[in-house]
Amino acid sequence: MLCVNRFQNGAIPGSLNFPFQTHWSADGDLLPGEQLELLNKARGKIVCVVGSSRNDLGLKFAEILLTQQWQRVCTLHKGFDVLLRTQILVVPATVGMC
Predict the structure, then answer these.
(1) What distance in Å separates the CA atoms of residue 4 and residue 97, rounded to the nearest whole number?
(2) Averaged pLDDT, groups of 10, the chain, 98 residues long
C-alpha cells in the first residue's frame, strides 16, 4: 500500500502494490486490472499486507480482503519503514516487477 514513487524506490521481491490513488474506487473497492488478477491467483496462500507508518491503508486493505472471505491474511504494520533499513528491498524495475 505505497504511493507509486515509494514503490519504485524499493519493494519486497515478488510483491504487488495497490496505490490508493489509482487502484481503488470511490466506494473503497479494488478496481479491475492486472494487479487484481495477480492477487486473485494468490487466493488460498498466505497474504502479508505490508503497511507504512504514514497511513493506515495497509490495515484497510487487509480488512477489505477479510470482508471478501479471504483467509490467511496478515499485516505488517509499519513494515515498509522497518524494511527500508534492511537489504531486502529491491528497485522493482531492475528485477522485472514493473
Answers:
(1) 13
(2) 52 77 79 87 89 82 87 85 76 52
Q: What does the block give as the cell for 4?
A: 507509486
For residue 75, give the amino acid letter. Answer: T
SS3 at position 4: helix
Cβ–Cβ contacts within 10 Å for residue 7, how many?
22
Distance separating alpha carbons of residues 17 and 39, to the nearest angstrom:
10
CA-based diameter of the chain, in Å? 37
Whole-prediction pTM: 0.69
Question: CA nearest 49: which of 12, 21, 89?
Answer: 12
Collapsed DSSP state (helix, strand, coil) of residue 24 = strand
Which residues are registered as beta bridge partners of 30? 24
